[in-house]
């Protein structure tokens, strides 16, 4: 319990955390390039599509994140939508490991805001920042989609109930949608 927080507030926060843990979501790694030329990235499950005209999506990133700092400077980011086989990559990019990009295959395509995780993502969405809004201990970043790269038809990685999973029929549904 934090100093100055009542027992009721702490209980409400724990209940909120449990409720959100029970809501499954897709998993991504948000990447960008720092001005020093080094890649930055972090695991993100707080993202959603916002609009089709124009194509917009938002991601919510931890305020203290070095990735967010680089996005502020760069003005763009790439959302790597992870495939089911990328559980270890999701864990790696959620950790504080500073050598995370040394442990995965990635490529920075010319003209994009950040690296594409070529072996771990089923799609990569390149975005330019439209706006940022502080929200508690996170920043909501709204991005305009400027490019999409489809990498595979693999089943997406999901996260819920504090564990990773896959949608059993996702690959066949992706095939049907095409």
Automatic annotation (TrEMBL):
Signal peptide: none annotated. Keywords: Oxidoreductase. GO terms for molecular function: FMN binding; riboflavin reductase (NADPH) activity. SUPFAM superfamilies: FMN-binding split barrel. InterPro entries: Flavin_Rdtase-like_dom, NADH-dep_flavin_reductase, Split_barrel_FMN-bd. Residues 20-166 form the Flavin reductase like domain. It comes from the Bacteria. Pfam families: Flavin_Reduct. The keyword Oxidoreductase applies. PANTHER family: FLAVIN REDUCTASE, FLAVIN-DEPENDENT MONOOXYGENASE, REDUCTASE SUBUNIT HSAB. Belongs to the non-flavoprotein flavin reductase family. This is Flavin reductase.
